[in-house]
């Protein structure tokens, strides 16, 4: 039998009952659509999360310095981290329980009798802090090495702290009081991407922080280039405190691929099962209808046997019919699935991420479903004795 | 002397029911080329069983059947299928045309399972339709034709591939007398062209037109 003839006969068999053939594909369409949408949305969403993850977390490394009889990290040691390849910015911070709730006061410049009194967190930091928290000086400037060296009594306020203290402009060099000590406000820091709580804090140079228990470095914030975080996480402790690196704790982002896999895994597991269940239902549907078709076409099978068709020819025709049904379901399902993924992405303003292999694999999966579903009906058809079929 | 188209030698068919039914008992039959034989008999006499034997649709219990010089009882299933497809043209009472295919496609179907080339198939089918005078119905669906036309289409399909034997099972059973005559006239013509025809029938009209009549009674044959 010529393959073209086999294809002809199978196509004619399907087209003889077009409505039934279309309805038979529906289960497979549903299953393949679910699978494609699941895989497509998961990949896209996963990619989306990695995108955000990259910006915020994937480049953030934090080194925590535990309390120790002698300081493990000196303020100046941060410079060695900054010089590491892959480090974009770094700054040291000193925080203490004692300084977490200090009373901070400001005089209203217009009406000095009006006093604003707030409980705020006071921290000491090195000069690189605005860059290290990816913030922006909205007023004035941050203290520099000169302020630190001279022991100038200056502070920078987080934007929120400045608002609470009623300080909006710096032209007249407003002062704040921590306890009884006055400090000149030289800048306001805003738009922090990391350590957002610092927006409500008062930042001091290390030299003046000493009196609030802020003499030793407790944390070092490091920002790395994309992809450098893991390496820097390894190198930073040794750069900060040679010989004591084991005592430092590093908090680094989990690798982005792992994060994406985790996201995809979660979304996929549930919907993949859903898609596979739909596929099984689709297969059962095809098997059912093909079996009914075989029973309806007993006379046709008898005729074909009388015309010289061998059992394998009969089996091949019904197998091909069910495979074509599954293939059609797969193609339609893949197309619908891709349209849905693109629509979801358009609605969410995501960039659709679709594996091109899906465009081939999905129809192939449909065809395999059809093939498997056709096995039993085809066997039944082939087993039929011509005498009985023609009766 | 040339081989006969059909040579049955003590052919027996027993159905293994309880008790067993001997539908054909030691049947002998010889049909020469260009013969036109009618097999007649009452209901339950074994006509269909004999047709199934002659058409290689079922196997005998014992005896031998030579078709066109080939001993068929020893053949494997697949070889019997090949012989059936190439040497026998079937004509059924209920036509057995595929309803969704045109007359031409139905006729061409006869060559789908053969070893022949696809090339020229259409022309051969058109020629067969010409022989049964259906050239004007080539693109018709079977449902839009009369019973006589349908049976002529089925005969055209049976003629494809020049079979050694035209095996007809009550070919006029579903036809009115006018169409019956048309089909019987066609058998006469085909026989004149050298075709060997075996017709199973219980209609006198049909058996009278045949050259030979063989009566089957309780599984045994007798020439009339
Ligand atoms: N598959 C079978 N199993 C058992 N017995 C059978 C089978 N087929 C036929 N028979 C029996 O064999 C005998 C001959 O049957 P067959 O069908 O050949 O008769 P027939 O001459 O064709 O009758 P009719 O004119 O009614 O079609 C009958 O007694 C029938 O009951
Ligand atoms: Mg009968």
Key phrases:
heterodimer; A: 391 residues; alpha+beta; 6-stranded mixed barrel; 11 strands; 53% helix; B: 224 residues; alpha/beta; 6-stranded mixed β-sheet; 4-stranded antiparallel β-sheet; 7 helices; 10 strands; binds adenosine-5'-triphosphate; binds magnesium ion
Structure description:
- Chain A: It is found in: Cell membrane.
- Chain A: The chain crosses the membrane at residues 21-43, 269-294, 315-344, 356-376.
- Chain A: Residues 21-221 form the MacB-like periplasmic core domain.
- Chain A: Belongs to the ABC-4 integral membrane protein family.
- The complex is a heterodimer of chains A (391) and B (224).
- Chain A is of the alpha+beta class and 391 residues long.
- The longest helix of chain A has 41 residues, at 256-296.
- Chain A has helices at 3-15, 18-56, 78-82, 129-132, 145-150, 159-164, 206-209, 229-240, 256-296, 298-306, 311-348, 357-383, 386-390, and strands at residues 60-64, 87-94, 102-107, 115-125, 136-140, 154-158, 175-178, 181-190, 201-204, 219-224, 249-251.
- In chain A, helix 2 (18-56) runs antiparallel to helix 12 (357-383).
- Chain A is built from 13 helices and eleven strands.
- Helices cover 32% and strands 25% of the residues of chain B.
- In chain B, a hairpin with a 2-residue loop joins strand 4 and strand 5 (70-71).
- The two termini of chain B are 25 Å apart.
- The model of chain B has no long low-confidence stretch (mean pLDDT 94).
- The complex binds adenosine-5'-triphosphate (ATP) and magnesium ion.
- Magnesium ion (MG) binds next to helix 1 of chain B.
What would you say about this model in short?
The complex is a heterodimer of chains A (391) and B (224). Helix content of chain A is 53%, strand content 17%. Chain A is of the alpha+beta class and 391 residues long.
């Amino acid at each position: 039998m010529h393959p073209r003839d086999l294809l002809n006969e199978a196509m004619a068999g399907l087209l003889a009952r077009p409505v039934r053939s279309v309805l038979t594909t529906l289960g497979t369409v549903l299953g393949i659509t679910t699978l494609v949408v699941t895989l497509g949305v998961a990949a896209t969403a996963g990619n989306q999360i990695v995108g955000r993850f990259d910006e915020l977390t994937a480049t953030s490394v934090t080194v925590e310095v535990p309390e120790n009889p002698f300081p493990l990290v000196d303020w100046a040691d941060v410079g060695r981290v900054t010089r590491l390849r892959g480090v974009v910015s770094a700054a040291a911070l000193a925080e203490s329980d004692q300084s977490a709730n200090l009373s901070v006061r400001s005089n209203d410049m217009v009406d000095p009798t009006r006093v604003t009194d707030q409980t705020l967190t006071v921290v000491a930091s090195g000069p690189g802090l605005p860059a290290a928290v990816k913030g922006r000086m909205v007023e004035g400037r941050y203290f520099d090495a000169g302020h630190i060296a001279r022991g100038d009594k200056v502070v920078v306020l987080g934007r929120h702290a400045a608002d609470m203290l009623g300080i909006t402009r710096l032209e007249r060099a407003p002062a704040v009081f921590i306890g009884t000590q006055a400090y000149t406000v030289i800048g306001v820091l805003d738009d922090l991407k990391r350590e957002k709580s610092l927006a409500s804090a008062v930042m001091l140079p290390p030299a003046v922080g000493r009196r609030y228990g802020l003499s030793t470095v407790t944390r070092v914030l490091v920002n790395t280039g994309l992809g450098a975080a893991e390496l820097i996480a390894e190198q930073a402790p040794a750069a900060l405190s040679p010989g004591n690196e084991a005592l430092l704790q590093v908090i680094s982002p989990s690798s982005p691929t792992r994060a994406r896999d985790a996201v995809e895994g979660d979304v996929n597991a549930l919907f993949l099962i859903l898609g596979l269940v739909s596929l099984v239902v689709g297969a059962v549907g095809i098997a059912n209808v093909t079996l009914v078709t075989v029973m309806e076409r007993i006379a046709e099978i008898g005729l074909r046997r009388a015309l010289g068709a061998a059992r394998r020819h009969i089996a091949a025709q019904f197998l091909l019919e069910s495979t074509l049904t599954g293939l059609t379901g797969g193609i339609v399902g893949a197309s619908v699935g891709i349209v849905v993924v693109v629509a979801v992405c358009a609605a969410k303003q995501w960039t659709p991420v679709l594996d091109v292999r899906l465009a081939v694999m999905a129809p192939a999966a449909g065809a395999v479903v059809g093939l498997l579903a056709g096995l039993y009906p085809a066997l039944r058809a082939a087993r039929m004795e011509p005498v009985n079929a023609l009766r | 002397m040339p081989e006969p188209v059909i040579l049955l030698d003590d052919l027996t068919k027993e159905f293994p029911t309880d008790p067993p039914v001997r539908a054909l008992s030691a049947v002998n039959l010889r049909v020469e080329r260009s013969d036109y034989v009618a097999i007649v008999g009452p209901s339950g006499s074994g006509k269909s069983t004999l047709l199934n034997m002659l058409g290689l649709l079922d196997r005998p219990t014992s005896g031998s059947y030579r078709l066109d010089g080939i001993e068929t009882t020893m053949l494997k299933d697949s070889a019997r299928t090949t012989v059936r497809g190439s040497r026998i043209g079937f004509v059924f009472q209920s036509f057995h045309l595929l309803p969704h295919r045109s007359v031409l496609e139905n006729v061409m179907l006869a060559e789908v399972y053969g070893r022949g080339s696809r090339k020229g198939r259409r022309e051969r089918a058109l020629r067969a339709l010409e022989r049964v005078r259906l050239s004007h119905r080539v693109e018709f669906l079977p449902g839009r034709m009369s019973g006589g036309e349908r049976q002529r289409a089925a005969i055209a399909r049976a003629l494809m591939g020049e079979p050694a034997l035209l095996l007809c099972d009550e070919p006029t059973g579903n036809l009115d007398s006018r169409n019956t005559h048309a089909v019987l006239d066609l058998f006469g013509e085909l026989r004149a062209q050298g075709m060997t025809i075996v017709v199973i029938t219980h209609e006198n009209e049909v058996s009278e037109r045949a050259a030979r009549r063989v009566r089957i009674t309780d599984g045994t044959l007798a020439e009339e």
